[in-house]
Amino acid sequence: MLNTLREPESETIHLGFKELYLSAFKWMLLSRTVEDKVAALWHAGKIAGGCYLGKGQEAVSVAVGIMLRPGDIFAPLIRDQAGRLAFGEPLFDILRTYLGKKTGPMRGRDGNVHRGRPKERIYPMVSHLGAATSLITGALMARRMRGETGFVGATSIGDGGSSTGSFHEGLNLAAVERVPLVMTVTNNRYAYSTPNSRQFACHDLVDRAIGYGVEGYSMDGTDLKECLEIASHAVDRARSGFGVQMIVASCVRLSGHAEHDDGFYMDKALLDSPIGRDCLSVAQAHVVEQGWADEVMVREWRQQAKAQVEDTLQQVQREPAPDPAEEDWHSLASAHLIDPEYAE
Amino acid sequence: MSITYLEAIREAQARALRENPNVYIYGQDIGAYGGAFKATKNLAKEFPGRVLDSPISEDAMVGSAIGASLEGMRPIVEMQFADFSANGFNQIVNHAGAYFYRSGVSLPITIRLPNGGNPGAGPFHSQSLESLYAHFPGLIIMTPATVDDAYNLLLEAIALDDPVLYCEHKYLYNRVKAERLPEEVSFSAGKALCRRPGKDLTLVTYAAALYDALAAATELEKEGIDIEVIDLRTVKPLDTPTILQSVARTGHLLAVSEGWPWGGINAEVIARVASKGFHLLDSPPERLNCRDTPIPFHPDLWLAHKPSAASIVKKVRQMLEW
Ligand SMILES: Cc1ncc(C[n+]2csc(CCOP(=O)(O)OP(=O)(O)O)c2C)c(N)n1
Ligand SMILES: [Mg+2]
Predict the structure, then answer these.
(1) From the candidates A134, A148, A336, A338, which should be mutated to test the interface with B, based on the most B CB atoms within 10 A?
(2) pTM score
């Protein structure tokens, strides 16, 4: 069924929308700040490999991340820095992983956005788009098999990733199993350089919710208020047994696909359209308008975020890189089955 | 009383379900129907909620097993045919295979692949995919040929903390029998076994080709040629010492596999013997694979496509004349 709900009705929201909004806004600020820093490091040649930012998509990401509780499962994708922070990923993780530090969760074995902490239920993504859909579905099935209740899982995908067979198989399975999954599809109108017109032929991706037999929502991804309302509703619905919730958010990627890409192919008119707004500026204006903070206070929060990023970075930069001579070059947990051929 | 290779697979799964509440089986038509080959016959009834029919979604079947194993389960995924695991390839090699090295968290998943050819099965229900998966790090590849190994290795696969591709040979399902199941479970992954001692030439093989190798050895015995037959049982990890010890005794090596010739298990066996045991060889090491075409449908073409006792005999004669 297609759910077009707009009115807030979740507990979380009644319990203090202002606090929720401000907390989400601060996570967005921190996310933008750390990503700007990472981009600067990348342009200075300090980072190996790619650099993928969630700029312009913080509101969508944080709204879902902040609704999750400890014990819930989050399988973030490339543009989910804000959601990661809100769910509890330490700020250290992004910097240690981009810089390939041995101290990071991936120990230099994987980089940039390909990071996570499986034991804390932040699943590290593989690059292959769509793969996390069935992953999180299986994790939710397992918890149900073990008799647990009250948990939800959340993951996200882009307009491009939604064309993969893996995404389709995963979402269909999630719907069949009626697991408590919140799937956010962020339609930022491009997949790398490919526009929606070369990606899918349906009128609106949210229409696919009917085909999958899941509840679907359209959401203005530039408006934090709407994002929080819809994410809160969807997470509550999933938690209360209404099955898979599919949120289709509209916004624009305020960067190239990655930092090597200037996005020259993007339609400039899109940036001037309502969904081309910067969600962070929109949120800031809302905070000031509501009288929840003045410009001075927001500037102070921004400074605090900067200081936090700088302090973290300074520590991380002093930390060791992985040592190839000390590396454990083994891919099996079963140590007795490691082929002696590959022992050295 | 006798028990088939297929029944041993079913019994191993029943035992694992009985002994460990975290084990469940996931695959197409495996519930009430009992599986395309009946490897899960009656298990859904005996273990309600733990033998689950999946949609035809090999990618999602494996992806969901990865997620479930992160949450403490020990999933067994049944592919209906090994050939269809191609649709789950990405989840197997890139997601499951890479997980432990990347994150330090292991995934206790068993993926059962009904592997290898049967007369009339054709290009898409006959493939031997062990070499393909063996190419990727982070996976264990088992290829049992006997009832005991089918039973023991499957229980070991389920007990291991790493992803295992358990390649069960379809040709052997109802053709290989034993008096009874092994009385005691013994874990021997990674260990090859000498199935027939001999002093003239070493045949290294596994799965259904083992029986062709043994038949060839019996035939050659009539000519006074004494063949040693090594059954790899687990192709990854590969038991190099057992192979080298045998070649040290015989001085000749022929590797036999039903898989395709380019790269693969035979190539790996020969490469290892050539680099570690070159001095042991009295003739160039050789291999027999199936032909480099899709697997043909007609039973006569199929028989001519893969190594047989006759083609092994012929090859051995050539090698020993050298
Ligand atoms: C299966 C697969 N094919 C190709 C890629 C390479 N790739 C990485 S991101 C990307 C574009 C993704 O676009 P979209 O899903 O719209 O997400 P966005 O980048 O817009 O957030 C591509 C093609 C990939 N990661 N996975
Ligand atoms: Mg996109």
Answers:
(1) A134
(2) 0.96
Last residue within a domain, chosen from B155, B178, B201 = B178
**What's the first-to-final CA gap in chain B, in angstroms?**
47
Whether the pLDDT of residue B271 is over 70: the answer is yes
Which domain does B112 fall in, by range? 3-178
The mean per-residue pLDDT over the stretch B238-246 comes to 98
Boundaries of domain holding A248: 17-293
CA–centroid distance, A155 to ligand 1, in Å, is: 15
Determine which residue's CA is closest to atom 17 belonging to ligand 1: A158
Atom of ligand 1 nearest to the CA of A187: 16
A186 within some domain: yes
B305 flagged as catalytic: no
- What is the average pLDDT value for chain A, to the nearest integer? 95
Q: What is the CATH classification number for the domain harbouring B288?
A: 3.40.50.920
Residue B51, in any domain of the structure: yes
**Is residue A103 predicted with pLDDT exceeding 60?**
yes
Confidence band for A343, pLDDT divided at 50, 70 and 90: confident
Pairing mode, if any, of strands B234-236 and B201-205?
Answer: unpaired
Q: What is the rounded CA–CA span in Å between residue B314 and residue B322?
A: 13
ipTM score assigned to the predicted complex: 0.96
Query: Do B83 and B222 share a domain, yes or no?
Result: no
Mutate to test the pocket of ligand 1, among A192, A253, A270 (most ligand atoms within 8 A of CB): A192
Place of tokens 């989400």: A24
CB atoms within 10 A of CB A264: 7
Amino acid letter for position B312? I
Inform me whether the pLDDT recorded for B267 exceeds 80: yes
Would you state the structure tokens that stand for residue A223, as one six-digit string? 């408006």
